[in-house]
Amino acid sequence: MATLLDESLTGSLAVRQLSVYYGDKKALGPVTMTIPGRQVTALIGPSGCGKSTFLRSLNRMNEMIPGCRVEGVVKLDEESIYGPGVDAVAVRRRIGMVFQRSNPFPKSIYDNVAYGLRLGGMKDRSELGGRVERALKHAALWEEVKDRLNESALGLSGGQQQRLCIARALAVEPDVLLMDEPASALDPIATAHIEELIHELARDYTVVIVTHNMQQAARVSHNTAFFYMGDLIEFDTTQTIFTKPTQSRTEDYITGRFG
Amino acid sequence: MAGREHTDREYEHELRQLREQLLVMGSHVESIIGDSIQALLERDSKLAERTIAADKVVNRMEVELDGLCLQILARRQPVASDLRFITLVLKVVTDLERIADLGVNICERVLELNAEPQLKPYVDIPHMGREAQSMLREVLDAFVAKDAERARKVIDRDEVVDALYAQVFRELLTFMMESAHNVYRATRLQSIAKYLERMADHTTNLAEMVIFMVDGQDVRHLTSREEPGTNDPRREHN
Q: Which chain B residues touch A214 with a CB distance below 8 Å?
């Protein structure tokens, strides 16, 4: 299996012998790979291949599923996220997540972005205001909403709501952003905005994105990992995966010769 | 091309159609090479004219195949071996069309030569013609069989044609030095030899493309580059 690119960049995720079980049933692994920091890594594969399970295990979201058990090691910059005494909430602050369907709270735009910060105990108004503005700018939404920060987030378009959710995740200043099909419910223009944003985000964050849209993986990511039946089949640069994959199962999947 | 068929049968059909059309075009070009040499040997002006006319079919096929490639690129967004195959076809048709044009050029020179008595018995030029034709057939077979090794052997044969061309050129020079009356015919024969030598060069390009399609390895201009794989995309990330 081809692996790894530049591991020296900060924000890299070292995954070692990671397996995930739902009850007695093994859903994933063991997977060993290093997700390079400050780059976009796409996870592709057919439904049920384990890519979303893998994504959720990168910030301990699986723990919220009853009967789910995780084995192995995940380290963010040499720090184990499953280590004894490591707080799952603290992990999720450093490794944020954006979901398939945008899920803004029924609150104002400002309150949505400030939510995580307030939860973390931040009270200072000017500090909050600065962080909200920075997050909205990072999520390329500031120009569109700066004059209506107190209006309901539910009044935004689908694409804007998804960018708001990205801003909400960015407000707590994470190192890594996990995205589960972030554009699958959006029209092509809103999708293009999100994809452009993903490019921008990779300057400051490590981005891991699950997508069913192969062209999207090819467009936005630096590296691509192909999962099948709970195993990592191939991990390489996106250019290699989409022009000259080494594994025939990868080739069959991306060229549409599956099943 | 991966061994298995696409889940989408229409896409599979389009790719098969592209492959078959490319082979039909290749066989037309092969015939043009053979006929042009036969027209020279048998001083057959009618055959030369028919061969010139046959080039129109090749030209039309080039346009049609280009169109089919663009259609697949736009509608299917091919990747991996499919992408390598489509880009191969786009380039192969250009070389095939050029080979056919060179066949037409041979026939034009034949028509000029047939207006004069034959300068000398032809030995090396038909040898070059057979070699160019057989190289093309071999490349097309390597393409069908997805056999990179076979394509590599075709590349090696280019040297044989180059050596024959040098020999023909030296011989024709002696004819031209002997008498100024020989110059008109000798320069035409020299052009024909040059066309055949160029055909072999184009066929070498085709062989390189077949290797790329099969192995994903770019073997062009290797002497002027470090080694295969120096354009390793992973370097971008380091």
A: 77, 79
The total number of structural domains that make up chain B: 1
| Position B34 in a domain | yes
- Please give the pLDDT value at position A100: 85
- We report the CATH number of the domain holding residue B158 as 1.20.58.220
- ipTM score assigned to the predicted complex: 0.71
- Quick one: pLDDT band at residue A63, thresholds 50, 70, 90? confident
> Which residues of chain B neighbour A243 with C-beta distances below 8 Å?
79-80, 83-84, 216
Provide φ and ψ at A173, rounded to 5°: 55, 65
Q: Is A67 exposed, middle or buried (0-12, 13-18, 19+ CB in 10 A)?
A: exposed
Residue A211 and residue A34: Cα distance in Å, rounded?
19
Low pLDDT (below 50) residues in chain B: 1-2, 229-238
Residues in chain B: 238
Whether the CB-CB separation of A96 and A176 falls below 8 Å is answered with: yes
Best of B76, B81, B146, B214 to disrupt the A interface (most A CBs within 10 Å) is B81
Class of the CATH domain delimited by A13-104+174-254? alpha beta
Cα B216 from Cα A236, distance rounded (Å): 15
Contact A28, A55 (CB under 8 A): no
Q: Where are the alpha helices (DSSP H) in chain A?
A: 51-57, 88-94, 109-119, 125-138, 142-145, 158-171, 188-201, 214-220, 238-243, 248-254
Residue B237 domain-assigned (yes or no) = no
Element holding A11 (H helix, E strand): none
Would you call B82 an interface residue with chain A, using a CB distance cutoff of 8 Å?
yes
- Position B54 in a domain: yes
Which residues constitute the domain of residue B111? 9-219
User: A240–B233: do the CB atoms touch at under 8 Å?
Assistant: yes
CB contact under 8 A, A5 and B234: yes
What is the model's pLDDT at position B173?
Answer: 95
Smallest CA–CA distance, residue A236 to chain B, in Å, is: 8
Give the end-to-end CA distance of chain A in Å, rounded to a whole number: 23
Chain A residues in contact with B4 by the CB 8 A cut-off are 252, 257
Contact A255 B80 (CB under 8 A): yes
B49 occurs within a structural domain: yes
- pLDDT tens-digit readout, A191-241: 898 899 999 899 999 999 999 989 999 999 999 999 999 999 999 999 999
Q: Which residues have C-beta within 8 Å of that of residue B212, sequence separation ≥ 6?
A: B84, B88, B218, B219
Going from N- to C-terminal start, the domains of chain A cover 13-104+174-254
Is A5 within 8 Å of B238 when comparing Cβ atoms? Answer: yes
